[in-house]
TrEMBL record, chains A, B:
GO terms for biological process: sulfur compound metabolic process. This is Sulfite oxidase. Transmembrane segments: none annotated. GO terms for molecular function: heme binding; molybdenum ion binding; molybdopterin cofactor binding; sulfite oxidase activity. Residues 274-367 form the Moybdenum cofactor oxidoreductase dimerisation domain. The lineage of its organism: Bacteria, Bacillati, Actinomycetota, Actinomycetes, Kitasatosporales. Keywords: Metal-binding, Molybdenum, Oxidoreductase.
Length: 376, 376
């Protein structure tokens, strides 16, 4: 008795040196999930394979016809729209690669204790919805607008703060045409699955997952910078807890390889036969188009250019790359490194931050090539 | 150089006392995934929320039209069937709850190091396919048939043994009418998703997941007991490694509660307001129909009967139960316990086995009820 919410909702912490993952981290890893890396073979991720990260529970939506999206705050007229009304407005479909801001967190040392991603928190889908800028224009944004706040129906407590999930975008991003922010009601031509925000979600091409507010029910224009928990307390790059830090925004460049050959069940070490091995994978950046991908098959000692597939007009989606490797018997470490048109590239050693955000250190895939072919 | 496959594919092991999860277990947890427990609200699990466990990689199937299922071995005539040919045969649709044999493994002490499930490795789908017994009758099974072996296209190495995933059923199970074993080509009315075995999989209602061979390409009738890795080496209940052990077969009874209220992000502790709370969940057993569900709100000290929804004719699917709880301020532990018609019930303390299979200890859900309502 007499306990408070803060007793069951404790501050952020870092794992001790050598501390394995705890059951709290496992509980998150078991209910959320990443992309099995072999699924990068598909241009558009098949249903159920796209990464999912839900802070709280997937909300219960007993009656989608009763769902309303409200646009309010510093606007000339408040909108209250049903999903049917949204579907009568101009629709845009965009192929977008989404990545969790915490991707790579479990590789850090010390490890921030949170959802423990390795490198697989990514996926690509075709999102269909109404351009946010059209809804804001319809509502009539006041000239003193600063931020636009997006409120989801997912409710929980985090570090003692009870909240609906809320994030904001600066007004210039919210009203931008490229990238075109969407209030999306369909994923790959079907209504949104429950875990992806049914019936409505935000899609902000090029930004990390925390911006892609799911179960969207409120859009509020405000005339001061938003200071909500998910904006000001977390999703910031801080070297020390007391720093204000920089907000996490656009996706840093990353390339991943589809692990070649076949795996060992437990160690996930890859086994390849000696001879030619076509390495393939994907590369993306939310900052600027990917301009080059380089591959190392010797743990980063030397790098060679991969072939990047031509630009097929999907600016906000990953691009395929390939590289023909001649595997010889022995142990190898494959790495791949993307660079974008703004000269951003992937670090070889990861700078560290408290939350484990925006990590994009080059992937390392151990491969074993036995003396004799084991090709099944 | 000179290393062998067994150097990257090591024996089974148990975690040391207090040993947290390693990156090998995390790599499995990140690519496989469980059912977010709130998704038990749906009778049939929506796409992407059903649990997934893949031993190796999801195989690449570049041309489904070229896929062939072969029925051979101790049969009068060998069959080689395309998926189109299978679709011309009599089809059956069955609602089936599937559960991984390793569900609950990460709760054991010591913890077998493998895919670390808590309790969420479950899901329910409507599977459509051809009854296996009809295909076996078409091929003409020899009178000396003992086992039927099912071969998937998923290839890997496990404890040093390179293999295609293979499991068998005794001939009497394979030719049974109830449960009707299916060679399934559809899940919830759509072609199988890649991670669920596209284009073909086995569905054995009432049996744990290891029997549900995905990416099915071979059915072989043999006249001796099958001794493959997944049948004789693993998926056996052993107290000590040197025991032969008993094979894992049918799903033991289990009930789970949809965690009430809302969660803390990190601890996943549940928070409920004081007052009436409708507890709901699901119960299932592969051994016999569930006959009762009992609920404890005091950590197992006392138990009260839950209301079990009427039998709706889905013998092989979970059943909904409900219980009205009056929450009072303080800390509580919710538990729920299913019993089936064969008098199987869930243990209050889990018997231990080497592989962590068929665990069905009663769930424990910590709930915090603050003095004042926090209902968002």
């Amino acid at each position: 008795m007499g306990r408070r919410l803060t007793d069951v909702s404790t501050p952020a912490r870092l794992a001790a040196t050598g501390e394995g993952l705890g059951q709290d981290e496992l509980a998150l890893a078991a209910r959320n999930h990443g992309l099995p890396l072999e699924a990068m073979r598909y241009d558009v991720t098949p249903p159920g394979l796209h990464y999912v990260l839900t802070h709280y529970d997937i909300p219960l939506v007993p009656d989608e016809a009763a769902w309303r999206l409200t646009v309010s705050g510093r606007v000339r007229r408040v909108l209250s729209l049903s999903t049917a009304e949204l579907r009568t407005r101009p629709a845009v479909t965009t192929r977008v690669t989404l990545e969790c801001a915490g991707n790579g967190r479990a590789l850090l040392s010390p490890r921030p204790v949170s959802q423990p991603w390795l490198v697989e928190a990514v996926g690509t889908a075709e999102w269909t919805g109404v351009p946010l800028r059209l809804l804001l224009a319809e509502a009539g944004v006041a000239s003193d607008a600063v931020d636009v706040v997006f409120t989801g129906a997912d409710h929980g407590v985090e570090r003692g703060v009870e909240q609906d999930y809320e994030r904001s975008l600066p007004i210039d991003i919210a009203t931008c045409e490229e990238p075109e922010v969407l209030v999306a009601y369909a994923m790959d031509g079907a209504p949104l699955p429950p875990q992806h925000g049914r019936p409505l979600r935000l899609v902000v091409p090029g930004w990390y997952g925390m911006a892609q507010v799911k179960w969207l029910r409120g859009i509020t224009v405000i005339d001061t910078p938003f200071t909500g928990f998910q904006q000001a307390v977390t999703y910031r790059i801080r070297r020390k807890p007391e720093e204000t830090g920089e907000p996490v925004t656009r996706i840093a460049p990353r390339a991943l390889v589809i692990p070649p050959g076949f795996p060992d069940f437990m160690s996930r070490t890859r086994v390849v036969a000696p001879g030619p091995v076509l390495l393939e994978g994907r590369a993306w950046s939310g900052c600027a188009p990917v301009t080059s991908v380089r591959v190392s098959t010797d743990g980063g000692a030397t790098w060679q250019p991969a072939e990047l597939e031509p630009d097929r007009g999907h600016r906000w989606a990953w691009r395929r790359w390939s590289f023909l490797w001649s595997a010889v018997p022995g142990d190898h470490v494959l790495s791949v490194r993307a660079t974008d048109g703004a000269a951003n590239t992937q670090p070889l050693e990861q700078p560290w931050n408290q939350g484990g955000f925006a990590n994009n250190v080059v992937q390392r895939v151990p491969v074993f090539c036995p003396d004799t072919a084991h090709t099944g």
